[in-house]
Amino acid sequence: MDLVHAAFEPAGDGSHPTILAMHGWGSNALDLMGLAPYIAHGQCLTLCPQGPVEVEIGAVNGYGWYQLRMGAPPDMEAMGQAADRLMRFVDAALERYPVNRRKLIVMGFSQGGVMAYNLAIRHPERFAALVALSTWFPEELAEYAGNREALAQLPTLVQHGRADDMIEITKARQSVERLRKFKLPLTYREYDCGHEITVEAIQDLSAFLMEKVIQPVITP
Questions:
Q1: What is the CATH number of the domain that holds 79?
Q2: What are the backbone angles phi and psi of residue 132, rounded to the nearest 5°?
Q3: From CA 27, how far away is CA 29, in angstroms rounded?
Q4: What is the CA radius of gyration of the chain?
Q5: pLDDT of 134-164, one tens digit each?
Q6: Which of 5, 75, 193, 209 has its CA 20 to 30 A from that of 200?
Q7: pTM of the model
């Protein structure tokens, strides 16, 4: 596996419902790992890969998925390369960890959420649900949509803070409108918070995953 990553494994031999969780710009593989025991009562195997782009933020550097270009259109080529690398990571993880391949959830926060959108839009048939946290859906990404039938069956949860000063709430609302064009089953939640994940958001996320992925019997 060519990406540094952290893993949370629930009790039991598996196979387990699994969350692929991508961190935001300037963070690292451990950023979302602390949520794993609290999401859906810790029933999900959680894999947190680390972005390959090093970000200078002080004494300890962080990581990202592609270089940000402030004020410029998103670099779709760089996003695509990062998405391809993540899918190779997924393929390797399926061989290494006790993953229930029919219950694989793609989730991301901030820039990691853009990558979650990339993976889900390009390969919707690979995932049982999509979770986008404090992030945005680039308009240009719509051109890369894969299996439209699979997209229309992909349960999606979008969460965002109304006071987010990193990614304004208007970008989340625009993203939701873009997503609705794919006719996917979408749940949208706003919270009285900033660029963060609250306890209420985790509770809503857990309920969503229990209902849409963990409890249902998903057959091939």
A1: 3.40.50.1820
A2: -120, 115
A3: 7
A4: 16
A5: 999 999 999 999 889 999 999 999 999 999 9
A6: 5
A7: 0.95
**How far is residue 72's CA from residue 202's CA, in Å, rounded to a whole number?**
33
Residue 91 lies in a domain: yes
Domain span at residue 20 reads 5-214
pLDDT tens-digit profile of 101-142?
999 999 999 999 999 999 999 999 999 999 999 999 999 999
The two counts, helices (H) then strands (E), for the chain are 5, 9
Whether pLDDT at 57 is above 70? yes
Of residues 19, 24, 115, the one with CA closest to residue 76: 115
With the C-alpha atoms ordered 27, 103, 101, 96, is the resulting torsion angle positive or negative?
positive
Q: For the chain, give the number of residues.
A: 220
CA distance 74 to 139: 9
Per-residue tokens: 185: 């089953």
Cα-to-chain-centroid distance, residue 122: 13
pLDDT tops 60 at residue 220:
no
Total domains in the fold of the chain: 1
